[in-house]
Write a structure and sequence with these properties.
elongated, single chain
Length: 331
């Protein structure tokens, strides 16, 4: 459950190379709350989001700690927006966008949320000035699809950890990830999607090296991930090799060593979106060079009672499907 306690909007007008920083927090009506909750929820469920930690020298994190001590939300958000816009205005091809800074609770855990959204039809700005004070408000239209944030960061207050999604900026001919490198000054680990891809790629490479069927190995990866997530919501990328190559100790050792060489630690646990990942690994799709396509439950690949892969005398591969009571025509 997400509860938005504070939110503010700052406008990044890259066309005119200026930032319109608000001096007041947003008025949180029901439409705007729904709008923000939808975007924030997507941040926590995106498979490409990367976990990260601040460098000890991060000036950004020092400003976060200062905010947590004095609770001056408006001034804190303006300092964040100023830092971010100073980088954006130097980049090529960055379209006008908006920065929402939010102080929220997610399942009773406090987070600071930073959402940079491209200008959308889903809401309109209302910028007012009175006696030198700028107030940015927004009128949300929940009936219009809102898409996803251009970039975002979710900072967990109690331990200082991050969940971040960013884009590369082209600055002076150099392509950099400015949000992590220049704005927040943090280091990132592999995203859940990158972790799963690394597991698959490594397992298939080990199978090739040992002369094992790579199709079966790819399915074994999915099956192992599904079993791993039966009673938990984390993956141990290194130890997963034990399940993938359950009957081959030498392959297990080779897999674990290669994963560690790729930067994963032996006891590392990667948080994943369990529901989303399980949907991806429950079935394995095959397509032959003859144009035949099959979708097979990943768990069946380890059970020769249902499916078996063999080689003919001419070296070609054939697949035997067993114990079929009926076939339904889907065409």
């Amino acid at each position: 459950m997400i509860i938005v306690n504070k939110a503010i909007l700052h406008v990044f007008d890259t066309t005119n190379r200026q930032a319109v920083l608000s001096d007041a927090a947003l008025t949180l009506d029901n439409d705007l709350l729904s709008f923000l909750e939808e975007h924030i929820g997507k941040c926590f469920h995106k498979a490409t989001s990367k976990p990260g930690v601040f460098l000890q020298t991060s000036e950004f994190y020092k400003s976060v700690q200062n905010y947590l001590e004095n609770e001056n939300f408006v001034e804190f958000s303006k300092s964040v927006a100023s830092i971010w816009f100073d980088v954006i205005r130097q980049a090529n091809g960055i379209l006008p966008s908006d920065l929402f800074v939010c102080d929220i609770l997610k399942d009773d855990v406090r987070y600071l949320i930073f959402l940079r959204l491209g200008n959308q039809r889903a809401y309109v700005h209302q910028i007012t000035m009175s006696e030198g004070t700028v107030r940015n408000e927004v009128q949300a239209h929940p009936s219009i699809p809102t898409g996803t944030a251009e970039e975002y960061a979710a900072l967990r207050v109690d331990d200082g950890t991050l969940l971040l999604s960013q884009k590369k900026y082209d600055i002076d001919g150099n392509s950099i990830y400015a949000l992590s490198e220049a704005v927040m000054e943090c280091v990132l680990k592999a995203s859940p999607q990158e972790t799963v891809n690394a597991i698959k790629k490594t397992a298939v490479k080990i199978a090739e090296d040992f002369g094992v069927n790579t199709v079966q190995t790819a399915a074994s990866v999915k099956n192992a991930i599904a079993r791993e997530l039966e009673d938990k919501e984390t993956l141990n990328p290194v130890q997963l090799g034990t399940a993938i190559f359950s009957k081959e100790p030498a392959m297990q050792e080779a897999f674990q060593q290669k994963m560690q060489d790729s930067g994963f630690t032996k006891d590392e646990k990667v948080n994943v979106n369990k529901e989303t990942l399980l949907k991806k690994v429950m079935n394995h799709k095959l397509k032959t060079d003859t144009g035949i396509e099959l979708t097979i439950p990943a768990e069946y690949f380890d059970n020769t009672e249902f499916i078996e892969f063999n080689h003919a005398e001419d070296g070609s591969l054939y697949i035997t499907l067993k114990h079929i009571s009926s076939i339904i025509n889907r065409g």
